[in-house]
User: Fold this.
Amino acid sequence: MKTTDSEIQLYIHIPFCKRKCAYCDFLSAPATFSQMESYMDALRKEISLRKGEAAGKRLRSVYIGGGTPSYLLSEQIERTMDLVQQEYPVQPNTEVTIEVNPGMVNEAKAKAYARCGINRISMGLQETHDELLAHLGRIHTYHKFLESYTLCRKAGFDNINIDLMCGIPGQSLEMWEETLTRVLRLRTPHLSCYGLIIEEGTPFYELYGEDEERRERGEEPLHLPSEELERSMYAMTGQMLREAGYHHYEISNYAKEGFESVHNNGYWQRYPYIGCGLGASSLVGEERWDNPREMEDYITPLSEGHLPDVEKRALSVKEQMEEFMFLGLRRMEGVYISDFTENFGRDSEVIYGDVMARLREEGLLEKKEGRIFLTGKGIDVSNYVFSEFLIDSV
Amino acid sequence: MDQSHIRNFCIIAHIDHGKSTLADRIIEMTGTLTHREMQDQVLDNMDLERERGITIKSQAVRIIYTDKNGEEYIFNLIDTPGHVDFNYEVSRALAACDGAILVVDAAQGVEAQTLANVYLAMEHDLEILPVINKIDLPSADPDRVAEEIEDVIGIDASNAPRVSAKTGENMDQVLEAIVNALPAPTGDPNKPLKALIFDSLYDSYRGVIVFMRIMEGTVKAGDRIRMMATGTEADVVEVGYFGAGRFIPCDELPAGMVGYLTASLKNVSDTRVGDTVTLADNPCDEALPGYKKARSMVFCGIYPADSAKYPELRDALEKLQLNDAALTFEPETSAALGFGFRCGFLGLLHLDVVQERLEREYGLDLVTTAPGVVYRIYKTDGTVMELTNPSNMPDPSEIDYMEEPVVDAEIMVNSEFIGAIMDLCQERRGTYVSMDYIEENRAVLKYVMPLNEIIYDFFDALKSRSRGYASLDYEMKGYVRQDLVRLDILVNHEIVDALSFIVPASTAYDRGRKLCERLKEEIPRHLFEIPIQAAVGGKIIARETVKAMRKDVLAKCYGGDISRKRKLLEKQKEGKKKMRQVGNVSIPQEAFMAVLKLDTDK
Assistant:
């Protein structure tokens, strides 16, 4: 019996935003009021139709992400949450998060979120320098963020995450330090610090795609921060946050004791999850599937009362083992060797002995107290480490 | 049918003047094929040829034409390859003909290859029938082009059919002109057999199929034949002629005819192009002139990307060789690449074609090392060795001196480009011999060039510096003494044998530096710094460094979309799988060809 089998998580996707950010490649776009209305009707239908997947399980977490969920009228969120409460076994200790965009929330909304059982807020601040925010295409300023943050706190939210981003063109080490200093003053219990990724198909790709290639080849980029600067930013983040009492628990995530994100940890530890909404992904019973990414393909079947067609892919044991490693190693704690044996009935040494020995020799992996985890150097080149855990099919 | 009703001819043209289209149209109009059966280009039936737009193996087709007076004629149309690597094959194909249709573009007029091809045809005493093609083009100027043909080439073009092979306009005039302007073959069908092999093909059921032109005598099934150069004897199983895309058996092939024979021959190398077929018990007194043994001029190492595929590679090479007598190979081992073959080719295009056929027809993933020529090494102990693989070069202390092969190169070029082409020849270590004006604004430049300089991208450079006007013809001249050294490449302090090559001592520094720069771009970053060094005789002459990879992009959380993350990781891993491990460095396959690209980009 797997440790993760008795619990499940629920993800709810809101694919709308006021304006698309220049670097964003998530499934999200501006929409009209009526488009949002009909989407939310379909979404609620799906939430009801999928409740069977959660039967007999404890609900670990609910996460309303996007897009910009706070772009919706609060009434839409309330109706959706009421339905979740009614159809799923939400308990007082179930983590319920909503993503909030600074400037897109007011007192009434914040209070409504608290009223309908949401107990955690994640705010996408990214940076505190307005010129960088403008360049990213964010619609808010630092000042606007402070307003939004304050009213969420006043509405009773203590568990607030703030998303930050380093590696932005034009961002100096000093600016990043200032942003961290400013945010630390808020003493919020959770911080996510990502590096900017230049994704294909975004306006940033047009601007910086070539520069990114230069950087990958090991040449000095013209606009993007150099690898060395990025490493310094990352190192500074770790150091400042640790000194301020945060615990580095996942590659990009830091939390005060007891405030690690239950929902995100669940992804890395392979707890089952149901994803509702446009393009949302699910993992249930070692099967993965993704909802349609086209609005019409998603809404039409649901408005007719049935689930959209999805292609369910049963994961082979090989794939499960690979995921176990490359997801589990994202957590600083790493993976417990005993968990591997328990999950797969096989010794990890048999499967990954060679790889682990080599990576330890290269100084990328460490083994201690029955678990293996990334070293500082391993974090820097985590994708390389993870890819080594893919098993060659013969 | 008697000889007066046979016409054996080929079509010659500058590239893109519409040779294949004209051939298609002739075949279509003579009715051996219905319109529906027509493929786009009937004569080019290998996929590869169609894609590259070149004709590799010459082929023939027999068609029936009924003229205006209701008389039936047999046309044997022989297709010729168009590249300098295959010059010898071209000359044999021409020798099988009595006449040639010269296609000239009505807009572009006479161009470099037009002239080169005409002269080649004239050397074989072929009657030339000029045809002005593409009159449908808005820029067509057939009057000017006709004048140009008379002025430049010196043949009468007053009656040259003016056609559009594309639309079919005036094509009937071409067919009539073939009957009236091209000569019928001669040759006595009762004399001892004398037939010219102009091509051959391996068929897994029938063995080698020999393509030939009967000059004298007659051949039929049951005859015992002998190849005069190779001495191979065999009993003829079948004779026949070429339908469009298939073989049609017949009772006998008399003098004047073009056709094929099969005789349970197992190996194409027994039936060399240019050889003479005669009867074993009633031989002709002398072979046809001009036979040359195919000789490998360019060598390179070919290795399977996946070393487990070595047996498959050997099988594929053996099969290709059945069809391609000019291809040679023998096993060799490389520390960097494992087990593979040292292969010999007629030239760089031949190499390219073989490599592509191996990859395409046999599904092999290959690593090819830089091509080189055959060097002669005179050792201090008085012995001479031929060097085809740079790794086998003896210690310099054992070498008295070395020689490299040189060719007599003839470049035909318009006067405005003479300066540019002379510069090019100079850069490629050419020795000027002569320059003759063949007309007011066209000259033939003669140079003695090291073959090694020609096999890389000389042909491309020639075309680009003359805007396509220069044409090249070359012939092996022999060997000359040269101060040569082996340039070694060290990656992370280890010599990569597959990257070693022979260069003149005077260019070693320059080559080494360029190659290091190029390799720096090809080799991906590793977790550690990788020095790339060029060395001659253990002395480092150039160095570049591939910086260590210090950091991935900080991975973002994709929510539950794990499949996307997996794809990213798979891509990363896949890239690595396609590389060769040399020590602890992964080298991409392309890097082994980097030597080739030294002169192209910059």
